[in-house]
Specification:
Elements: H1 23-49, E1 60-64, E2 68-73, E3 75-77, E4 81-88, E5 94-100, H2 101-106, E6 107-113, E7 118-122, E8 125-131, E9 138-146, E10 150-158, E11 161-170
Parallel strand pairs: 3-11
Antiparallel strand pairs: 1-2, 2-4, 4-9, 5-8, 5-10, 6-9, 7-8, 10-11
Transmembrane segments: 35-58
Keywords: Membrane, Transmembrane, Transmembrane helix
């Protein structure tokens, strides 16, 4: 049994090195590496701006009603605490808030400050009323926790005016 033990000796390059390297494969690797670094940088920029939840300029969205302003997260994190605030601007004795069921399918309310005076069920929604004293603005804060991830759209009604609110829950 004979075995060919000859090694191919690479030629000497013009720079004096005696290497045989596949440069084209290395160039493809470097190109993929540069693209990956740009992608990492883009993800970091999105996180700093607030598009991954928990802070940043674009973390909250403001939804304007005739009688109130609602600040809701644009992006939330799965099983992470978040907050939602409603500022009522109408000078009435009670404020009525209706939130549709898709919100409660995705989120758990941990705390409402101040507590609603009444809390009831409507077809496909929950109705809360808050008593108000003195002059507006009156603010209600919700501490919420996302229980499932994905795209969520729900309706909110304040003062007879309904708005659709969309938000993303990231894993």
């Amino acid at each position: 049994m004979t075995q060919d033990t000859r090694l191919d000796i690479p030629p000497v390059r013009p720079d004096g090195l005696q290497l045989n390297e596949p440069r084209e494969r290395q160039r493809r690797y470097w190109k993929v590496q540069r693209i990956a670094w740009w992608c990492f940088g883009l993800v970091m920029l999105l996180a700093v701006l607030g598009f991954t939840g928990s802070g940043g300029f674009f973390h909250k969205q403001r939804v304007q009603f005739a009688a109130a302003t609602v600040e809701v997260p644009r992006v939330s994190r799965w099983e992470g605490s978040d907050d939602m605030s409603i500022t009522f601007t109408e000078p009435t004795g009670t404020h009525r808030l209706v939130i549709s069921q898709p919100f409660f399918d995705r989120f758990m309310i941990e705390r409402i400050q101040p507590e609603p005076e009444t809390n009831g069920l409507a077809p496909g929604a929950q109705v809360m009323t808050f008593s108000a004293q003195d002059d507006p603005p009156h603010q209600v804060n919700f501490d919420v926790r996302a229980m499932h991830f994905g795209w969520t759209g729900f309706d909110m009604t304040i003062g007879g005016e309904t708005r659709r609110i969309n938000l993303l829950v990231l894993p």
